[in-house]
Design goal:
single chain, 504 residues, alpha/beta, Ribosomal Protein S5, domain 2, Rossmann fold, 2 domains, elongated
Length: 504
C-alpha cells in the first residue's frame, strides 16, 4: 500500500514543502528511509517503531520504504518523526490515506508515543496556510502555530490522541494564540548620571537606525548606556514582530507560544566565533546578527573580537542580510540590526586620563585602535567619547531624563518620517540610498556647503559622506523639520569626529 503526507524543510527562514511517501511491499522485512536524510532522520525508524508499539501496533513483516521528496533537497531534524509515523499508519490501513494528505506535520516522537516540541513551528505554520493546508504540531507549540492565522491547526500531545481524532473518536480543538505584551524593563536612562552627549547620540541612533561606537575608559558607563538603548527605541510593527519571531522559532528560542514583541538585544562575548556571529555550523543555524534582526547587536570590548569576525559584519551592515555558503547548502537569513559597539581608548583602558596612563601612551592607543579596520569604522555613523563621570555628578540626587520621555521624542520623529517611507522598501533613514536619499533629504545651501567643507577636512569617503546626510536627516526629523539645515548638519558632523579626536 502507498500513503503520503507532508512536512517541511528549512532554507534560512524560507520553508520548502516536503512530501512523505510510505510504501509497504512484499519481501524481506526492512525499514528504509531515502531522500538525503541526515542522521537524526535515520534514527527516527527506532522512535517510530517504539511509538507505534506504545499504541499496541507492530510493524508488518514486509519491506517498508519511506521517501522524502524532492529527493535532491537535504533534510535535517527530528520533526519528520510525526509525519513518517502518520503516513506509515496510513499505509498499514489504520488511517484512511485521504484523511492525512491535506496536512503539514511536525513533531518529534518519544518512545511512549508522546509528541515533543521542535524548532521552526511558526514559519512552517505560515507556509501551511500559504499552501492552504492544515497543520499538525506538538501540543506545547499549538499557541505558537496559531499566530500564523491558519484556520486548521491541531496540537495533540501524543500519537494516540491524533489517531483518535483522525478516526473520529476524539475532537481536537484549534489552539488559541497566547496573549503577548511588550515587556517592561527596569533599565531606565534616568539611572545614568551625566553623559548628555552620549544620550543624545543614542536618541538619534534610535530614531534613525544608526550604528554607534562608544569610546571611553573602564567604568565610564558604556555598557549601561547600551543596555538601556532598547528602552528608547520605537515598538516593532506587526510585520516586524512576525519576521523576528520566525527567526527565533527556527533557532528554537520561542517559549510558551509567545512572539518576540520587544526589539532583540544580543550581546555575544568577544570570544564568539565567526559562524556563531553570522550563522552556520552543521545545520546552518542563524547567528547572532540574525537573532538581533530589527534590534541591537551590542559588541563590548570591540577590538577584542577577532579581525575575521569583525570583518564578517561589513556586508550585513550594508545589505541587511547574510548568506551562509557551505558545500551542501546556501542559506540566507535577514540581518537588519543596529550595531552598538563599545571599546576602551587603549589596551590598559586609561589613555587620556591623568595619572592613569601607562608608560606606552599614546602608542598603546594607536596600536589598540588599529585592530579595527578603516572600512569597518566607515560603517559606524556615530562615534562618541564617553568620559568618566566626575564624583560630584555621581553623587547628585537629581534624576536624569527618563527613557519614556526620550522614547516619546523618538516615536514622534519616526512618525514624522513615516510618510516618506510609505512607498519605499525601507523603514528608517539609515537604509536610504542613492536617489531615495536625495529625495528624502533636501539640504539648504549652507548645510551642503558645510558638509562639503567638512568632508574635505575629515577626508570622508563616499560612504561616510552619505552617512552624514542620513544622520542629519534623522536630527531634522527630531526637530520635525522638512529640510536639513546647518544646525542639523553640524551636529551630525560632531558625532563623526569622536575617534579622530581620540587619535589626536
Amino acid at each position: 500500500m502507498l500513503s503520503y503526507t507532508h512536512s517541511v524543510a528549512f532554507a534560512g527562514i524560507d520553508v520548502l514543502k516536503i512530501g512523505i511517501e510510505v510504501q509497504i511491499t512484499g519481501g524481506l522485512p526492512s525499514f528504509t528511509i531515502v531522500g538525503l536524510a541526515d542522521k537524526a532522520i535515520a534514527e527516527s525508524r527506532e522512535r517510530v517503531r517504539a511509538a507505534l508499539h506504545a499504541l499496541g501496533l507492530s510493524l508488518p513483516a514486509a519491506h517498508i520504504t519511506v521517501n522524502l521528496a524532492p529527493a535532491d533537497v537535504v533534510k535535517e531534524g527530528t520533526h519528520y518523526d510525526l509525519p513518517i509515523a502518520v503516513a506509515l499508519m496510513g499505509a498499514m490501513g489504520i488511517i484512511h490515506p485521504e484523511d492525512i494528505q491535506g496536512f503539514m506535520m511536525m513533531g518529534e516522537l518519544g518512545l511512549d508515543g508522546s509528541i515533543r516540541p521542535v524548532s521552526g513551528i511558526l514559519p512552517a505554520s505560515i507556509a501551511a496556510n500559504r499552501y492552504e493546508m492544515g497543520f499538525i504540531c506538538p501540543a506545547e507549540q499549538g499557541a505558537e502555530a496559531s499566530w500564523s492565522g491558519n484556520p486548521v491547526i491541531y496540537a495533540p500531545d501524543s500519537l494516540l490522541t491524533l489517531l483518535n481524532h483522525l478516526k473520529g473518536f476524539q475532537v481536537l480543538n484549534t489552539p488559541e494564540a497566547s496573549k503577548t505584551e511588550r515587556a517592561t524593563s527596569c533599565l531606565d536612562m534616568k539611572d545614568i548620571k551625566g553623559h548628555t552627549i552620549a544620550k543624545r547620540a543614542l536618541e538619534i541612533a534610535a530614531a534613525g537606525g544608526h550604528n554607534v561606537l562608544m569610546i571611553g575608559p573602564p567604568g565610564s558607563g558604556k555598557s549601561m548606556l547600551a543596555a538601556r538603548m532598547p528602552s528608547i527605541m520605537p515598538p516593532m510593527t506587526k510585520e516586524e514582530i512576525l519576521e523576528v519571531s520566525q527567526i527565533h522559532s527556527i533557532a528554537g528560542l520561542l517559549h510558551d507560544g509567545r512572539l518576540v514583541t520587544d526589539r532583540p538585544f544580543r550581546s555575544p562575548h568577544h570570544s564568539a566565533s565567526t559562524p556563531a556571529m553570522v550563522g552556520g555550523g552543521l545545520k546552518a543555524r542563524p547567528g547572532e546578527i540574525s537573532l538581533a534582526h530589527r534590534g541591537i547587536l551590542f559588541l563590548d570590548e570591540f577590538p577584542e573580537f577577532t579581525r575575521s569576525t569583525l570583518e564578517s559584519l561589513r556586508q550585513p551592515l550594508e545589505t541587511g542580510f547574510v548568506s551562509v555558503a557551505r558545500a551542501n547548502a546556501h542559506t540566507t537569513y535577514p540581518a537588519r540590526f543596529q550595531l552598538i559597539a563599545a571599546m576602551n581608548p587603549c589596551k590598559c583602558g586609561y589613555l587620556g586620563v591623568p595619572g592613569h596612563e601607562c608608560s606606552r601612551a599614546p602608542r598603546c592607543g594607536e596600536d589598540y585602535r588599529a585592530k579595527i579596520s578603516g572600512p569597518m569604522l566607515d560603517r559606524i555613523d556615530l562615534q562618541i567619547e564617553v568620559p568618566l563621570v566626575p564624583p560630584w555628578e555621581l553623587g547628585s540626587q537629581a534624576p536624569g531624563e527618563s527613557s519614556a520621555d526620550i522614547r516619546k521624542r523618538v516615536e514622534r520623529a519616526v512618525e514624522f518620517a513615516r510618510d516618506r517611507f510609505k512607498a519605499l522598501k525601507i523603514t528608517n533613514n539609515a537604509q536610504a540610498e542613492g536617489q531615495v536619499l536625495e529625495r528624502i533629504a533636501p539640504m539648504s545651501a549652507r548645510a551642503k556647503a558645510l558638509l562639503v567643507d567638512a568632508a574635505q577636512k575629515l577626508m570622508l569617503s563616499g560612504r561616510g559622506y552619505h552617512r552624514m546626510i542620513r544622520v542629519a536627516r534623522t536630527i531634522a526629523d527630531l526637530d520635525r523639520a522638512d529640510m536639513i539645515d546647518t544646525i542639523h548638519m553640524a551636529e551630525a558632523l560632531s558625532f563623526r569626529q569622536g575617534l579622530r579626536q581620540a587619535k589626536d
